[in-house]
């Protein structure tokens, strides 16, 4: 009986080890990226090649209904009470939220992505899209109180923080040399497609 039980148990252990190994490999698999930040290297038909900021070559199919917006620089003073903004923040030395960039949405984009969530721009960064309810000018920047439907956050915006806004763009701006953020999805065949691209105007690198 002992021999039979051992013979029966060993295959079960082997199957379990394979299952654990497969789950581990699945857990370690890199998530599919949702955006690429970089410079367009070439455009051919409905395909563009982007060199990411980290040096990777990313080939993207341009969706027929692609939405293109320009990104232009504005000043910190353009952030008003009532503005709907997106702020990328990182934890400050005092535990507060320090902005590394702020983008002011035009009125027709108010409410876009409202809320606060982890973001992939920098380690430990978060993105908060919300309405400015208070703005206090200090010696070295502004402190904004921003409110969204599930809460609020106090954000310190140093004077040297990039501040931008969006303007209408067109597909003709997708050309070599353009600095872009392309939002993308993976197609069933494993390739990538973008249906929304933000393009820096006048050589600007979109900071978000």
Automatic annotation (TrEMBL):
Keywords: Signal. It comes from Bradyrhizobium sacchari. This is DUF5666 domain-containing protein. Residues 1-27 form the signal peptide.
């Amino acid at each position: 009986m002992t021999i039979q039980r051992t013979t029966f148990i060993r295959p079960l252990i082997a199957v379990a080890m394979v299952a654990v190994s497969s789950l581990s490999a699945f857990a370690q698999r890199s998530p599919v990226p949702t955006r690429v930040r970089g410079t367009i290297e070439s455009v051919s038909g409905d395909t563009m090649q982007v060199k990411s900021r980290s040096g990777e070559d990313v080939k993207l199919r341009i969706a027929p209904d692609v939405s293109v917006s320009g990104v232009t620089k504005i000043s910190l003073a353009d952030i008003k009470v009532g503005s709907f903004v997106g702020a990328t923040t990182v934890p400050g030395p005092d535990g507060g939220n320090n902005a590394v960039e702020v983008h002011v949405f035009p009125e027709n984009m108010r409410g876009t992505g409202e809320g606060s969530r982890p973001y992939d721009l920098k380690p430990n960064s978060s993105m908060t899209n919300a309405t400015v309810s208070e703005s206090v000018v200090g010696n070295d920047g502004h402190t904004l109180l921003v409110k969204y439907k599930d809460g609020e956050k106090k954000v310190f915006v140093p004077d040297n923080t990039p501040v931008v806004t969006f303007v209408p763009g067109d597909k003709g701006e997708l050309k070599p040399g353009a600095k872009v953020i392309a939002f993308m999805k993976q197609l069933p065949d494993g390739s990538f497609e973008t249906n929304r691209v933000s393009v820096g105007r006048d050589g600007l690198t979109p900071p978000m």
